[in-house]
């Protein structure tokens, strides 16, 4: 009898002791699990690991792995876990094919084993996109759950109209308020006292703004003369297409359409222009394209607003801008960056309350145009 009691107590202790690796873990918790443990880990997609100490966070070249972190803006590789993507997951989750997945919050089930000799998860059995409640409902989340629900399964004009309805109603800033907003949205991640200038890529003091040479001012990426909206509240102050730029560079761009070619512009490296077009540096070509696509969807002519359209030629006039085929190429060649996604989140949570759909879902461009 005494042996039976001891066996029953021992069995009860074994049942009540947590199994190592059970439950959904954070990235840091999963990194502390032993190799060979079965794990379920939740984290933000923050890039593509291509070496033990390097993770691509833009211009993705591979669908073979993901890096996850507890912070959607993480840049330190030591705080990331690498997830090996077997063939069945690459088409849906690989960032080379789906750069819009950057920043998404997912759950991965698999085995805790090194990848590139770094803490990793292999033999993945399941990946699911989950809602991050701490970043949902207007608190700066990436692609908040349900935000694009009414656009699901649509294409063409129906998708364009659905996206317009989603992003149309938002807070409008005054033109003077734009200064303060841009100091926040375009802050240099390596120097909180500076902003990054769009075309030149220079880092300049937040308060060196104005209209003098070597200061920065407010560039309308959709040139305000393309619709004559000036600086009025609405398209003239929509910070989804307003960016800090050097005064001289802003003046040189003027109201030119966007296209490839021309002469080099010395004050903005790798930038070219001619009499009717402007070509920005490669690192922001996609940013420019997605801002233009946003404007063409946000302003559709209702409620007395302009109907902005993207044309497939340069030398445009009226409420149109070009060149569509070039902008689509730029969108593909320069995928969404961490900086761009972070900017989208800030505009959504702190200023306008709406998002740029083409940052969250790059695939929408091809579905509409």
From TrEMBL:
Keywords: Endonuclease, Hydrolase, Nuclease, Signal. Residues 25-128 form the Endonuclease YhcR N-terminal domain. Residues 1-21 form the signal peptide. GO terms for molecular function: endonuclease activity. The keyword Hydrolase applies. It comes from the Bacteria. This is Endonuclease. It comes from Halobacillus naozhouensis.
